Amino acid sequence: MKIGLYFGTYNPIHVGHLIIANHMAEFADLDQIWMVVTPHNPLKKKATLLDDQQRLQMVYLATEDYPKIKPSDIEFKLPQPSYTVITLAHLQEKYPNHEFSLIMGEDNLKTLHKWRNYEVILENHDIYVYPRISDEPENVELKSHPKIHIIDAPIVEISSTFIRNSIKEGKNIQPLLPPKVWEYIDHNNFYKK
User: What's the CA gap between 20 and 104, in Å, rounded?
Assistant: First the structure.
């Protein structure tokens, strides 16, 4: 089975994440998309980051009606900080019959050369890239790499930061969140302070 790994803090997960994940599930040659919830990095300030389990719960709520999209807490069990190359090696060992690929925005592709052991990732895994608006200069060499697949997905400019700030300001941003995620956030008074 071909699995696309879509990493994120999902703080909170929003319709933009779902649009990308569903587009990859339907239009790329991937069988499933695993939305990998990135745990809190102990070296970073927690400030607005919800608890790992709360963010995972929101991904469950958001994806339960999408049979090809699955939440994953795989990085919760790995040493921190998480490095993609280590997560990929762990998954390959745990699920030897699956083929794992990465899903990333074009902005991340531009900085891929700065990732730990990015050559190992490129050698062993396909990378599916969706368009993002960014000021970073293009990495033409990487874009033409045989393992890189540019997918003509919709450009979605919604950010979790914008959503958190809007909730804090008392704005109605309900249309930007899956209904069950909105209910969960509202019920628990998340992001209001």
Answer: 10
